[in-house]
Amino acid sequence: MDGNLQGQAGKILSEMLTNCKISAKWKERGGVMTGVLMYLRELNMASLLLRLTLALLFGGLIGMERERKRRPAGFRTYMLVCLGAALTMILSQYLALMLATRWSDVAQQVGLTTDASRFGAQVINGIGFLGAGTIIVTGRQEVKGLTTAAGLWTSACMGLAIGAGFYECVIPGFVLIFLCVRVFPRIEYASTARSRNMSIYVEVHSMEDMASVLQFLRTRNYTIFDVDLDRGSESSMGHPNAVIAMRLEHREPHTAVLAAISKIESVWTIEEL
Amino acid sequence: MTVLSFLDPLRDITTASVLVRMLMAVVCGGLIGIEREHKRRPAGFRTHILICLGAAVTTMTSQYLALEMHYFTDMARLGAQVIAGIGFIGAGTIIITRRRRVKGLTTAAGLWTAAIVGLAVGAGFYEAAAYTTFLVLLAEMVFSRLEYRVMKHVRDICFFVEYVGNEPLDNVICLLRNANATITDLEITRPSDSEKEDHFCAVISLQISGKGQVERLVDDISVLDGIVSVEEM
Q1: DSSP state string for A225-247
Q2: Domain C-terminal end among B115, B150, B185
């Protein structure tokens, strides 16, 4: 049975292959295309201009999506980072080219070589630092800005690939990154909004009031996993607060849960984390 | 690089090429910096010039070591550390404001790019440095206008609603849901001054589906019972 199926599949495949005869014209065009691509892989004025422009464009397009969400790293930040990363790679290639041509005498005499990835390697490092500056730990035990840092770092890596002229990697890479910032947030949001798990930050008047909050949650049959109590810090202006992780009894809009908790007399601030 | 062969005499380390490279580093850094200065950002004209110049000196020095003094060295090593080092300086310009906003990231990125332009100038890669400076200026001057245009079409907005009593919030949430807006974040606080006994403040982050919906939503919410004020943030 299996062999039969395989045989059939093989027959169909070979038929398809014989049917699509590539005409001479297309072959020739393909030849030209590979020629152009080969030319652009080398370092010359055309590839230089193309790569830097491409870096600006792709960085900008990813940045535009982030900008729309009013995230700290926008349009220009992504452009600049991607452009800078591409330039480092081109610069390495330039040094290698010069060592092979103009400076070849000295290079042979002293045995000079250059590592073409040395500049680029530091980009990965340097943008990591830059990204670390965007990460905030809020007073409410939340970490923010991680996606911004990661996105910036990824676009720097894409800039490296653009600068290296690795076009096959750049185009699918760009599509996937774009998808990641454009479509995936919706999926992420949809899954968290429908989730029965919820994590809230509550600020109350005094420590005793926390009991009434927990009691309220219990009367609604929520399972409480974890309560992280704090007697009051500077960020909460001295109010006792808690981060409560819980599981709702059945699916309900999270906003309704928050609204219900806000009606408890002693609750000062309520927020979903 | 056959296209710009007139630059070839300047590709080696000579007194003339060193002077040209340093001057070009000052010009490129200055061009990038003057725009930032114009916007009164912390890192301005001089900061950019200094960093661009410093970066250029590093690559020139390593070329001097290798090509003139014939030491065995990798010409990329000094310059590579600049890339990481300016990342550090840049991270220092990033501020987190009281309202948990990040500021200064574009300044940091611009400084970092200026350093890499400096590296290219110092290495004698004039055409790449010039074109990159042009692109940075394009990004700063032309695309920053585009940025405002994109901001007008934001679909993620934030409302600040002040209300009295318990019912208004449910009505607001209901209204927003009927308008097809998805609430992504909700924070409810009582104002700290005790005179306003029954007052609440809600910060609602939401995603809206269409353009021009914001004004209508603000109007709709403000006429509800018990609403003291509505503002878009």
Answers
A1: EEEEEES--TTTTT--EEEEEEE
A2: B150
With contact defined as beta carbons under 8 Å apart, do A270 and A211 qualify? no
Domains defined for chain A, CATH in brackets: 30-189 (no CATH), 195-272 (3.30.70.260)
Angle, in degrees to the nearest 10, between helices A167-182 and A24-41: 90
Residue A219 CB coordination number (10 Å): 8
Domain interval for residue B15: 5-150
pLDDT at site B2: 47
DSSP state of B68: I
> Strand runs (DSSP E) across B22-115, as ranges?
95-96, 102-103
Q: Which of B215, B231, B200, B83 is nearest to A163 (CA)?
A: B83
**Number of C-beta neighbours around residue A264 at 10 A:** 15
Same domain assignment for residues B14 and B124: yes
Q: What is the largest CA-CA distance in chain A?
A: 85
Residue type, B48: H
User: What CA–CA distance (Å, rounded) separates A69 from A256?
Assistant: 25
B14 touches chain A (CB under 8 A): no
Let me know how long chain A is.
273
pLDDT digits (tens, 9 = 90+) for A193-212: 778 888 888 888 777 778 88
Which amino acid is present at A166? F
Give start and end residues of each alpha helix (H) in A101-145: 104-110, 118-132
Residues 75-104 of B with CB under 8 A from A: 75-77, 79-88, 90-92, 94, 96, 100-103
pLDDT score of A72: 65
How many domains would you assign to chain B? 2
Distance CA B160, CA B175 (A): 15
Q: Between β-strands A267-272 and A197-204, what pairing exists: parallel, antiparallel or unpaired?
A: antiparallel
Closest CA to A210 of A256, A241, A247: A241
Q: Average pLDDT in the A81-108 region?
A: 92
| Residue that wins the pLDDT comparison between B1 and A102 | A102
Which of A51, A62, A77, A119 is the best substitution to test chain B (most B C-beta atoms within 10 A)? A119
A68 touches chain B (CB under 8 A): yes
